[in-house]
């Protein structure tokens, strides 16, 4: 293990990085003028105080704190991977509830954790393309949780006027302070408890399409170039549900990303 990795794994360094991350997020939200767009059906879901599953792309997670109305707590499942725990510390210091999930092979455990939270009346946040990608391609986890719990999925995305798109697997949108931002919710998606495989796949695609449309629309509002989804994964080889870790940085590059790296 090289020196850099040893330093990043040390407790004191993790604490410092988590503190710096939290301060950056505080500065971002204090200096950004946010507009929230919400269709009537989704407004009613949020106003009822009942649990829901908020779904947003991994690359837009830094903006999602602006999405929630006051008084609503959302539990975000975070990978036990080192980077996930760093962000977990930062979010906890900002008052965001987090739940640890296994970073490898923890899909079933993550589903059970979310189902228990929803049964208690708590809401959860899921990144359907996390924690490993492909970018902006929804895996089945959110659909399965909605089917098990009977609560609606609320798709949401966001954009800002000042940003940097990072070269990570998710094309992470690093929102910059002193800007304007928009959060746009989509229509609720209900998953029938007795839906068959074909219906579940249709709803998975519907969620993916909703999120990509919302993301493209919010980017266009600021004249920003659209971030394109990674190459679609065939259904037969698509990964099973994983923990919705919005902060796990153990990426698996898509075919598109690998081709770009090869050309570089």
Short description:
With 264 residues, the chain is α/β, with parallel strands linked by helices. The protein has helices at 3-9, 11-31, 40-47, 82-93, 107-119, 141-149, 197-221, 255-263, and strands at residues 32-37, 53-55, 74-79, 98-101, 123-126, 153-160, 163-165, 173-175, 179-185.
Name its key features:
single chain; 264 residues; alpha/beta; Glycerol-3-phosphate (1)-acyltransferase; seven-stranded mixed β-sheet; two-stranded antiparallel ribbon; 39% helix; disordered C terminus
Molecular structure report:
By secondary structure, the chain is of the alpha/beta class. The protein has one domain: Glycerol-3-phosphate (1)-acyltransferase (3-Layer(aba) Sandwich), CATH 3.40.1130. 39% of the residues lie in helices and 17% in strands. It has a 7-stranded mixed β-sheet with strand order 1-9-6-2-5-3-4, sandwiched between helices. A two-stranded antiparallel ribbon has the order 7-8. Helix 4 links the parallel strand 3 and strand 4. It is globular, with a radius of gyration of 18 Å.
- The CATH topology turns out to be Glycerol-3-phosphate (1)-acyltransferase
Rg from Cα: 18 Å
Largest sheet: 7 strands, mixed
Give the H and E element order: HHEHEEHEHEHEEEEHH
Q: Count the strands? A: 9
Number of helices: 8
Strand order of the largest sheet: 1-9-6-2-5-3-4
The stretches of 5 or more residues where confidence is low (pLDDT under 50) are 239-264
Would you tell me the structural class of the helices and strands? Answer: alpha/beta
**What is the overall silhouette?**
globular
How many discrete structural domains? 1
For the record, the CATH class is: Alpha Beta
Average of the residue pLDDT scores: 82
């Amino acid at each position: 293990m090289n020196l850099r990795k040893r330093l990043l794994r040390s407790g004191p360094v993790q604490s410092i990085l988590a503190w710096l991350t939290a301060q950056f997020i505080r500065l971002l939200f204090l200096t950004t003028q946010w507009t929230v767009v919400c269709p009537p059906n989704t407004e009613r879901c949020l106003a009822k105080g009942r649990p829901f599953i908020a779904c947003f792309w991994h690359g837009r997670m830094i903006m999602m704190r602006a999405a929630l109305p006051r008084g609503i707590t959302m539990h975000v499942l975070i990978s036990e991977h080192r980077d996930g725990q760093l962000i977990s510390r930062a979010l906890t210091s900002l008052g965001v509830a987090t739940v640890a999930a296994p970073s490898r092979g923890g899909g079933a455990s993550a589903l059970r954790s979310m189902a228990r939270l929803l049964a208690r009346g708590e809401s959860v946040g899921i990144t359907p393309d996390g924690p490993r990608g492909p970018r902006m391609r929804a895996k089945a986890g959110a659909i399965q949780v909605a089917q098990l719990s009977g609560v609606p999925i609320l798709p949401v995305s966001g954009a800002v006027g000042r940003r940097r798109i990072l070269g990570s697997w998710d094309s992470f949108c690093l929102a910059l302070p002193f800007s304007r931002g928009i959060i746009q919710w989509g229509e609720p998606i209900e998953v029938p408890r007795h839906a068959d495989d074909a219906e579940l796949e249709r709803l998975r695609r519907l969620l993916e399409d909703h999120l990509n449309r919302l993301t493209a629309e919010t980017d266009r509002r600021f004249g920003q170039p659209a971030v394109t989804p990674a190459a679609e994964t065939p259904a037969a080889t698509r990964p099973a549900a994983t923990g919705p870790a919005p902060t796990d940085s153990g990426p698996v590059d898509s075919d598109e990303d690998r081709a770009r790296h090869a050309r570089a």
